[in-house]
Design a protein that fits this description.
By secondary structure, the chain is α+β, with helices and mostly antiparallel strands. It has a domain at about 30-105. The protein is about 20% helix and about 20% strand. The chain has 2 helices and 4 strands; from the N terminus they run H-H-E-E-E-E. It has helices at about 10-25, 35-40, and strands at about 45-50, 60-70, 90-95, 105. The chain has a two-stranded antiparallel sheet with strand order 1-2. A two-stranded antiparallel ribbon has the order 3-4. It starts with 8 loop residues before the first helix and ends in a 15-residue tail after the last strand.
Length: about 120
């Protein structure tokens, strides 16, 4: 069926598409609205993924991927947030479903600034 812009179906289709887009946006992750995170954006843990490794020879391994400091667009660089050197980042894994972590990964970060072309290493 060919739709003409003068068709009475056109406004309904457009309204449905807009409603669908609004619903999709509402299902996306939202960050920085929590009171604590607005004061400490460097520790904002946004996404976490865990999946069976698919690399050859690593079938019994699990890959963990954690994302911190969301909403940093590439065009906003080069001045991105750095990881907080005073923070302890943790990932707790419960292997048996009892609500108690069986494995904990802890991370601390520091920022090392590489010399620019005009600077000599010290």
């Amino acid at each position: 069926m060919k739709l003409d812009r003068r068709s009475t179906l056109w406004p309904r289709i457009l309204a449905g598409a807009l409603a669908s887009a609004a619903t999709s946006a509402a299902l996306a992750s939202s960050h920085r609205e929590a009171p604590f995170i607005t004061t400490r954006p460097k520790v904002d843990g946004s996404d976490f993924y865990m999946f069976n490794s698919y690399e050859p020879g690593r079938g019994g391994f699990v890959t963990l991927v954690a994302n911190y400091q969301p909403l940093q667009e590439p065009q906003a660089g080069p001045n991105y947030f750095t990881m907080d050197p005073n923070a302890l980042y943790e990932i707790h894994i419960d292997n048996n479903g009892d609500g108690v972590e069986d494995l904990t990964f802890q991370f601390r970060f520091n920022t090392v600034t590489a010399p620019t072309i005009d600077q000599e290493p010290s």
